[in-house]
Design goal:
single chain, alpha/beta, Purple Acid Phosphatase, chain A, domain 2, 2 domains, five-stranded mixed sheet, 21 helices, binds manganese (II) ion
Amino acid sequence: MQGSPSTDHKKRSGDPIIDTRKPSVPSPDTESTKITPIKGGWFKKAICGIFGPERAEVHNPDSKAVGQVTEPWSVLRDIFPMDDKAVVARLHAMLAEKDAAIAALQQEIHRLSNDIQSSTKVARREHPMTPVIHVVEDGGATVQNRMGRHASVATSNVLSNIPSQRTDELCPRMINMFKAPLDFVDYLKSPRFARDILRLAKRACPIFENEPRCLFLQSPAYVFGDIHGNLEDLNFFADNIWKLGVPLTAGRFLFLGDYVDRGMSGLECIAYLLALKIQNPEKIYMLRGNHELRDVNGWEEHYGERSFLWQCRDRFGEEMGIRVWEEVNQVFDRLPLCGVIDHDVFCVHGGIPRPIPGSNNRIQDILMVPSVAGVNPPNELETFETQQVASDCLWSDPARGDQERYLDDTGFGESLRGGGAICFGQKAIDDFLEQNQLSYIVRGHEAHAEGVSISKGARVFTVFSTSKDHGQGNKAMAGCILVDFDQIQVINRSVRYKNKFVHKRNSISLAGLSGSALDLRAKLGLVVSPEHTDEGEEDFEEYEDGNDGKK
Ligand SMILES: [Mn+2]
């Protein structure tokens, strides 16, 4: 240990003569600091700083006396035979050393905060090589070619050693079906489509079950509201937002729920979305809406042929239909309840949940909901609290202006929907955003002719991604939101955008088809009656109170 700081110190402490050439500022790990902790006033600290703590203790065993001294220079001269200049020089040296230590610490703080930023803002990802080139053909279709035909031997060896990707046709089949449903009319009515949906459901269940009930996502992210079995509008987004397909489009796609009921193509929409999820589990995210509940999507008496259960039974027959309905509902039981983009934008189907007594963190409350939950009706894993949190996420609405004065002191009140559904007012919104350091709430659940609407002091976006079946008239638009770094953009489908799939029964394009072929297409949602109009159409309401626009 020769030459170490502690050895030096032992030598010096036996020597009464002060060595002015070597300031003995104690380093944090010397023995002296361990043995003689510095206490007392500024004067004693200064002496300790200049001469080392052992000197202060040797010459001034009574620290109280030192602390009371009012003339430091004279006392210093009494204690140590040094002139003023030497003391000032020592003080300067000490200050320089402290400044250097502070600068080093500031640099360390800077380095650590950079570390924190880089690890929280941009998570490290891996980028395994895909030995494929996507070639965009005339008309927009993409074809895959092998990469590296002209590469060096070494590069070719690397590329050819990459294990080939799974050649499962299930998801590509669904995606092709969705792009051109009129070419798949027979398939869509066949038991094979039913079996394919069962396979999709089986593969989707563990993916959703393993996701947290609150997803934490990074932008860019597109957010979509209610789909409600509207193949036409979902195709509009596919053709414009992910034109080359989801794998070739940057960013994430977050769907806020309500995939089935009300529209005629619930099976096509959910099959397509599940295929996208299975194919792109880190890009496609799906939340649960109130229609992803057995009590709602099994309500045939209310929704008739626009009920998801009715469509399953009608398409595949009693036994297979109910099996498909149940297996898809098993997937719904596992859907997450909300998502937060960039730790700033809260996304949910209905709205924010009421606080749970004894808890002060709503995101934690949501994360506590079991990863398999029936909600309506609940399963044995669910408590009253988790059922309430999940129900609120799925069902609630922002309070309308005239409802604000009927809310309780937490800012929540009864919804016009009735049946235990709640609404949240300005105070509830402000508290929730403040407590979780969030800026906006993005939700679906309420139809708007303008696609995306904004309310509650510009804190709440309501996004609706189907323009039909909600009594919003023939001028209604479907919309979505893009959260892109520091910007939020709204993208709507114009009413003038040309419809590709859904035709009136008497249109020229269908002239060659027989009556039964037309009926079949009508059941898939691809043909509507000539007098079909969304204008003033009666709007259904889940709960007994009638309320236009609620879905
Ligand atoms: Mn809804």
